Fold this protein.
Amino acid sequence: MSKRQLAMVMDLNKCIGCQTCTVACKTQWTNRNGREYMYWNNVETYPGDGYPKKWMELGGGFDAAGDLQPGIIPNIEADYGVPWDYNYESLAEQNLLSDKPEPGFRPDQSPTWGPNWDEDEGAGNFPMDNYFFYLPRICNHCSNPGCLSACPRDAIFKREEDGVVLVDLDRCQGYRYCIAGCPYKKIYFNPKISKSEKCILCFPRIEQGLPPACAQSCVGRIRFVGFLDDEESQVYKLVHKYKVALPLRPDYGTQPNVYYVPPTEAPPKFDENGKIIEGSNRIPIEELEKLFGPAVHDAIKTIKAEREKRKKTGKSELMDILIAYQHQDMFRLDHN
Ligand code: SF4
Ligand code: SF4
């Protein structure tokens, strides 16, 4: 156990799937040196197969007795997707206005999967009850990390001062047990150096009092960062005071430290005559329960009650926090 734990809260009602966070992370950390295929931050469409493909079905994590579960190591080409480029020259050469345009603008490889391969597909039938929402994901910097438990080299550790989970590259021998052990598949094998690598929560920025690049750049202001024991932090208020921010797949047993405010703002369904079904919600509550556990019912009740209170009285601390008037208020990172 670390002395203190940093956490991130993401409000899924506000993510617009713009991928600014993904680009901020990629350009900072993973666009070179064998990390090209990795996305330490990705934003996937839910429902969907996600990244890596069908990650929720690949095992890892702990059972109810606390035993580490076997897991599958995803294949780089088939499950993550190799980075591809486009033949820009052929596009420049061809006349797009001709009657027979050449099929020029094509990936230079033949990918079968990649991040956001099934973006915006979602589930249900348009226009009756189709739905999806965006699910941004980073390493959860878990309190009981499956990656750490699976490593026979003790190469993975949690920092005392903030609980950030890191790989000691001097100790890592590239066995990849950590990848099997992480149920979120948020630790990756770098084939160039034969070692495992993962999100470092931008700890060099954290140490300067700055939020991780994904949170700093978030266009939707959905990401809050702070210490879980800091009662002044908005993270504390969302997780502990109002209990509206919940960990993803708590049933995996790793005690994640990334929390999500569940989506409550889906439009109602239509019946076969195109009429609104009053009181209906396109996002099935069973799906939210699968993602966030039974606590999601109370979290949604609280959010709705506070929204009504805000409408009637003009006052609600919870709504003020979620609206995020001031970006800087979303982060409290001093190590004191
Ligand atoms: Fe380890 Fe996976 Fe948890 Fe990150 S999300 S700390 S890689 S078990
Ligand atoms: Fe969502 Fe923010 Fe990332 Fe845009 S930058 S995809 S709003 S988490």
